Amino acid sequence: MSKKKAAKPAPKKAAAKKSAGKSQTIMTENRVFKPSAEFSKKARVGSMAEYRRMYEESIKHPDKFFGREAKELQWQKPYTKVMEWKCPNAKWFVGGKLNVSENCLDRHLVGPNKTKAALIWEGEPGEKRVLTYQQLHREVCRFANVLKRNKVKKGDRVMIYLPMIPEAAIAMLACTRIGAIHSVVFGGFSAESIKDRVLDCGAKIVITSDGGYRRGAVVPLKKNVDDALKGGDTPVETVIVFRRTGQDVHIEEGRDVWWHRELEYVDAHCPAAVLDSEAPLFILYTSGSTGKPKGILHSTAGYLLHAQMTCKYVFDLRDDDVYWCTADVGWVTGHSYMVYGPLSLGATSLMYEGAPNWPENDRFWKIIEEYAVTVFYTAPTAIRAFMKWGDEWLKKHDLSSLRLLGTVGEPINPEAWMWYHTQVGSSKCPIVDTWWQTETGGHMITPIPGATPTKPGTATLPFFGVDVAIVDDLGKEVGKDEQGKLVIRKPWPSMLRGIWGDKKRYHETYWSEFEGWYFAGDGARRDKDGYIWIIGRIDDVLNVAGHRLGTAEVESALVSHPSVAEAAVVGRPDEMKGQGVVCFVTVKEGITTGRDLADELKKHVRKVIGPVATPDEVRFAAALPKTRSGKIMRRLLKQIAAGEVIKGDTTTLEDLSVIAQLAASGED
Ligand code: WTA
């Protein structure tokens, strides 16, 4: 970054004016915001020179760099080697033994952190709970004993389908205590999605609750589990039910037990299992470009180290911080940055149940004021929604406790960045725009808040140990400002260790496009300062309000409907959600199309995948545009969905009249 370019923050008015016209600003954005001297002075990494020195060491001497960082974990047995790599299999901290729950809990019980808040929780109806490290430790040990009592053993898979309540974190940590592998499923997924996942990972036990609250409604979690397990053709032997909403639920004799009842049989003593550095820690399902969601597997030592390290360097978390990550625990962000990272570091992590606009549009700001939140991490889609709802919701609250802001999930447009900076952060808080993925386990490209001058819309530079390149189809690095594919050329501690049960797919999906390099599925470009601008997914994965959704998954849900002959799903730019889901559908002989069928198909997708996948629009046509070899021309469909004039080569199109039809088709 040349000094000349680093300007002072633009005054509010000028900034607002300048940021009008979104796509053009991304390419020409040149506002630079340096961290304040005050922030840098206190930060762990206080200058670009320091960042560069550390980064270089992490790349050239990973053994030394990560060996030093790993001293900050509590080991049951020291490792003998930092890393072993034979593509695509990585082993970190070979031979070491440790336990995640011990690192997140027990080690904080000596010294002042014992009585410090580990989790602060606010439920949607307004209940509040604080669990100190000591209390959380006790609850985790008790529940780990409940799992043992229900015959859960090391290596068994445990599915967790809970609302945003402390019990979700308790259940996760209890699994880690005994070496069971958890797989958390987001509450917005349907019974069918639960069933698919249960079967794929071979879960023996499901932990759920009667229901959960969202925007004043009760989500019928237990009923979804019942539907998923109907027929008894799954490996699930036991369902543990937490009482949250108090509504009536079916209890299946011989299978279902109540969480609170089970606790009556156990004590609070549960030694932490001795686990290998590479012991599987959790499986988290995420969407890919083909077929069913993939069970991304993470393992123990490397994952925990990266989660802790990024909380330390990227969020700069300290003993007196009140840190709030608004993500749901069902996503990787909730895993790494609500539970494991902050707790491993001994920080205070806030968790909330509900939605940003319930009971009113100021839920976030109210919580920040009430708990004096200092470090706040949320998604661009939420920021854009708040912008739309108006500044008055924010103005009602004192947000002066905030000192650092973060975003994740999708590219943040400069307007939203500026609003976040000026309105939420009072122009004084650094913003860390963190690029990463379920597969990467933790932050990969991100500013270091006391060091990196930021620019609205870029995730800036790689984190320690992350060797990023932007390449063309042949693997050659592209030039400045040219778009290419984002790859990572070296293994990093928290990288995925595989796709559950599918070694071949693991290699093919991530390591075969450029043999030996990890291909992320995102497009990016580098600017003159070397900053990385993420363009977004270049595969058939959509990013809808920060949630990943495979077009193939939605297509397969659509064609499972009896009226549908063929379907193609594409994303369309959406101001709020980043992308909206547009479905092009052809129907079977004799089926009448129209709004009723469009609504029915939307409902059908919700039922099959879950509310997270609800299509924005369903369009009918007599045929889909295909090449002569029968491939659906998605490029055309994307243009049609976005209402653009069809550009580019259509010479391979089988039937040109199809385009005109599709462009004319709407829901009505
Ligand atoms: C996108 C979420 C731009 C990206 C942690 C990636 C981002 C996908 C950013 C992973 C960001 C995430 N800027 N794009 N700061 N963060 N993405 O697995 O396309 O749910 O591939 O992990 O989200 O989504 P996932």
3D architecture notes:
With 668 residues, the chain is of the alpha/beta class. The chain has three domains: 16-60 and 300-537, Rossmann fold (3-Layer(aba) Sandwich), CATH 3.40.50.12780; 132-273, Rossmann fold, CATH 3.40.50; 541-664, 2-Layer Sandwich (GMP Synthetase, Chain A, domain 3). It is built from 22 helices and 30 strands. The strands form nine sheets. The protein has a seven-stranded mixed β-sheet, sandwiched between helices. The chain has a five-stranded parallel β-sheet with strand order 7-6-8-11-12, with helices on both faces. The termini are far apart. The model is unreliable at 1-25 (pLDDT under 50). The structure holds 5'-O-[(S)-ethoxy(hydroxy)phosphoryl]adenosine. 5'-O-[(S)-ethoxy(hydroxy)phosphoryl]adenosine (WTA) binds next to helix 13, strand 20, strand 24 and strand 25. The chain crosses the membrane at residues 158-180. Residues 1-20 have a biased composition (Basic residues).
Mean pLDDT: 93
Largest sheet: 7 strands, mixed
Structural class: alpha/beta
Q: List each distinct ligand once.
A: 5'-O-[(S)-ethoxy(hydroxy)phosphoryl]adenosine
* Radius of gyration (Å): 25 Å
Count up the domains. Answer: 3
Hey, roughly how much beta strand do the residues contain?
15-25%
Q: So what's the CATH class of the largest domain? A: Alpha Beta
For the secondary structure, the number of strands is: 30
What distance lies between the first and last C-alpha atoms, to the nearest angstrom?
52 Å
What is the fourth-level CATH superfamily of the largest domain? ANL, N-terminal domain
Binding site for ATP: 409-411, 433-438, 522, 537, 548
Domain AMP-binding enzyme C-terminal: 553-631
Keywords: Acetylation, ATP-binding, Ligase, Magnesium, Membrane, Metal-binding, Nucleotide-binding, Transmembrane, Transmembrane helix
Cofactor: Mg(2+)
